[in-house]
Specification:
Layout: H1 13-23, H2 27-38, H3 46-59, H4 71-82, H5 85-100
Helix pairs in contact: 1-5, 2-4, 3-4
Length: about 110
């Protein structure tokens, strides 16, 4: 990553760590995480969700990011990007807890808001 280029999630160290750790997981674990993140769409406006579907169509299998080869992961990460900062942080913390404990159940930490 060049000095002047920052990814949207680099500003929050917890979010950055969660996404970087997620990028290293198995496909099954990524799928579980994507499903958890997609559950955030209830907190994102409909017009944003429509834009996310456009992004998914545009980048699926064509982009250079680690998640561009999986349309579900693209949707999940874009939903996370569009979520309010508080929601991003809560989701990142839950992801970190599940990934670091090697859990496949991302929902087991959902009630700790």
């Amino acid at each position: 990553m060049s000095e002047g280029y920052r990814r949207w999630y680099d500003n929050d160290p917890i979010l950055k760590e969660a996404l970087e750790l997620l990028s290293l997981q198995t496909d099954d674990k990524k799928s579980e995480a994507a499903n958890f993140i997609i559950s955030l769409q209830e907190q994102v406006a409909q017009d944003v969700i429509e834009r996310i579907y456009e992004i998914t169509t545009k980048y699926a299998g064509k982009g250079h990011r680690w998640y561009d080869n999986d349309p579900v992961m693209i949707k999940a990460v874009e939903l996370l990007r569009a979520a309010p900062p508080k929601t991003q942080r809560i989701a990142a913390l839950k992801l970190l807890l599940a990934l670091e404990s090697n859990s496949t159940d991302f929902s087991e930490t959902e009630d700790n808001d």
